[in-house]
UniProtKB/TrEMBL annotation, chain B:
It is a multi-pass membrane protein. It is found in: Cell membrane. Keywords: Cell membrane, Membrane, Signal, Transmembrane, Transmembrane helix, Transport. GO terms for cellular component: plasma membrane. GO terms for molecular function: transmembrane transporter activity. This is ABC transporter permease. The chain crosses the membrane at residues 60-82, 89-108, 114-133, 145-167, 187-207, 234-259, 301-320. Coiled coil: none annotated. The lineage of its organism: Bacteria, Pseudomonadati, Pseudomonadota, Betaproteobacteria, Rhodocyclales. Its main location: membrane. Residues 1-25 form the signal peptide.
């Protein structure tokens, strides 16, 4: 079997001197989808950016395609994994198409300009998130949800095999939430991509992921298949609030007590 | 995103603008010389009057073009580095440091070469102080860099005011002209022009990475930019470009702030086009402004910094009010 797309070995992550993830092991194969759940401030985003190699771990190692992230050149890492951050801001003007095209950066040489092929990829990505026809709009005229979908289109344009998504559903209305989750489920199913996403809705995590990683914020983490780990009992403990579980046609739903 | 073809056309027309500004700078002035004589002198076979123009006006125009280009380039780079559209080459205290050096030299009546030398040393000193303080604990964030720069600039401003207040009146005029930016006391034109060429050649390979950097550090890093290395490079380049310009012509205002904005408005924010276009536009503007500075109330000369600011302030306010919210 080939090396996993993402592997964490004895990974420790700390925020401001406090260890939030302690010696965690994780491995993600092509086609797998993992949800990260936890309370606010538990360290989900920090863990995700550490897995993306964007900040050094306190201890342990992150491997992308079997190679240590710390030793990979930034461009090589960008060809393997795409990372969606929580915040986008655009101090300077830029069009929707230009923004989507930034995803092609790691594929281009130093003096290359984006080709017709790159523009084609960007247009397809915009179409996939329902932003077709808005190529020439300025980004600061977009709504929050549209801006979020543009970031997702940029990620698709990057064409990596591992997606690390920090709250991909923020600002999105219900139909676009489902569309985005279907999109990444399709990428995992059809293209062998692996997806890690920080989510706040355990029901959606259960429906769209294979496994879940619960981050408690005190160093403890728990992993398992969604059926095993996303239960009223574990989630009530995770969030510190009582939840009741309802099953409907194979989907799980959690209702606050 | 501009296509290569469109970028080429824009740069070609800006080159024409630059040539036109040189033509005006060479022909305008109290001594009227026919364009044919000037061309003959440029080709190296002219008579007396053409030669005078070429020996006096051409070096000044070249120095002006180099300084304008350096300031516009440094401004464009600083705006990306600080991710702040209101940043200019002087925001991090470079001109303050140069000002302290130059005022010190003038206060003690040192020769022109020493004024330039101390100005450059002052600019480098300010650069290292700001970098050292902002980078001290490794955080090196935009806010921290900006704050440190602003504070160092304020400190330099106080030192300059101190030296102005104790200087005797015969020296005050020259000191004030230096502070407002003046091409009349330029020692030599080629160091600035060389600095401009080198700075542009160093910046251009990173142009697409700068596009990403302007969208955020993490974002750029995730897309494969070696962010830390790039930021050191840009900081150094922008600072040295500013130092070269300030040393040559004093602290000329507003070119570095307004030109990148004007170009951005006309061509978009792709640094691959923005950087060279800013250099050409900034150089041309300063040549034109300096031509006006020495002809408007001739034989008296105005400091060119006053003219760039007088042109720059209304243009900038106009742009700002037009900017979509």
């Amino acid at each position: 079997m080939s090396a996993p797309l993402l592997e964490a070995r004895q990974l420790s992550v700390e925020i401001g001197g406090k260890t939030v993830v302690d010696r965690m092991n994780l491995s993600l194969q092509p086609g797998e989808r993992l949800a990260i759940l936890g309370r606010n401030g538990a360290g989900k985003s920090t863990l995700l950016s550490t897995l993306a190699g964007l900040r050094p771990p306190q201890a342990g190692a992150v491997l992308l395609d079997g190679e240590d992230c710390a030793l990979l050149a930034p461009r090589q890492a960008a060809l393997r994994r795409a990372w969606l951050g929580q915040f986008q801001n655009d101090p300077f003007g830029s069009t929707v198409l230009e923004t989507a095209l930034t995803g092609r950066h790691p594929h281009l040489g130093r003096w290359d300009w984006e080709s017709k092929h790159d523009a084609e990829l960007a247009r397809k990505a915009l179409q996939a998130v329902g932003l077709d026809g808005m190529e020439t709009r300025q980004v600061h005229t977009l709504s929050g949800g549209e801006r979020q979908r543009l970031s997702i289109a940029t990620l698709l344009t990057q064409a990596a095999t591992l997606y690390l998504l920090d709250e991909p559903l923020s600002h999105l209305d219900l139909n676009h939430q489902m569309a985005v989750l279907e999109l990444f489920a399709g990428a995992a199913r059809d293209c062998g991509a692996a997806v890690v996403m920080v989510l706040h809705d355990p029901a959606l995590a259960h429906r769209f992921c294979d496994r879940a990683l619960l981050v408690y914020g005190d160093g403890r983490c728990a992993q398992g298949t969604v059926d095993d780990i996303l239960t009223a009992e574990t989630l009530s403990e995770l969030y510190g609030y009582g939840l009741r579980q309802i099953e409907d046609r194979g989907h799980r739903c959690f209702i606050p007590e | 995103m501009p296509t290569r073809r469109r970028a080429f056309l824009i740069l070609a027309s800006l080159c024409l603008l630059a040539l036109a500004s040189f033509a005006l700078a060479l022909t305008a002035g109290s001594l009227q010389v026919a364009p044919a004589d000037i061309l003959a002198s440029l080709a190296g076979r002219g008579d007396g009057s053409g030669d005078v123009v070429v020996q006096l006006r051409l070096p000044r125009a070249l120095a002006g073009f180099a300084c304008g280009g350096l300031l516009a380039l440094a401004g464009a780079l600083m705006q990306v580095l600080l991710r702040n559209p209101l940043a200019d080459p002087y925001v991090l205290g470079i001109s303050g440091g140069a000002g302290v050096g130059a005022m010190f030299a003038m206060l003690f009546g040192l020769p022109l070469l020493a004024i330039d030398g101390l100005a450059f040393a002052g600019a480098l000193g300010a650069m290292f102080i700001v970098f050292g303080l902002a980078h001290g604990d490794g955080s090196w964030t935009q806010t921290r860099l900006l704050l440190t720069g602003v504070i160092v600039a304020a400190g330099c401003g106080a030192l300059i005011a101190l030296m102005l207040s104790i200087a005797d009146e015969r020296k005050l005029h020259g000191m004030l002209f230096w502070l407002m930016g003046d091409l009349g006391q330029t020692y030599d034109w080629w160091p600035a022009l060389l600095a401009l060429v080198v700075a542009l050649l160093c910046a251009m390979p990173f142009a697409r990475e700068l596009n990403l950097l302007s969208r955020g550090l993490m974002q750029a890093q995730a897309l494969g930019v070696a962010v830390d290395r790039l930021r050191y490079t840009i900081y150094l380049l922008a600072s040295l470009a500013t130092a070269a310009s300030v040393t040559t012509a004093g602290s000329i205002g507003f070119v570095g702030l307004v030109i990148p904005h004007l170009v951005r408005l006309a061509t978009g924010n792709d640094q691959r086009l923005l950087l060279p276009a800013s250099v050409l536009a900034g150089g041309s503007l300063l040549v034109l402004a300096d031509t006006a500075a020495r002809t408007v109330i001739a034989p008296m000369q105005l400091p060119v910094g006053v003219l760039t600011a007088l042109i720059g302030v209304p243009v900038f306010l106009f742009l700002l009010s037009r900017q979509p919210k």
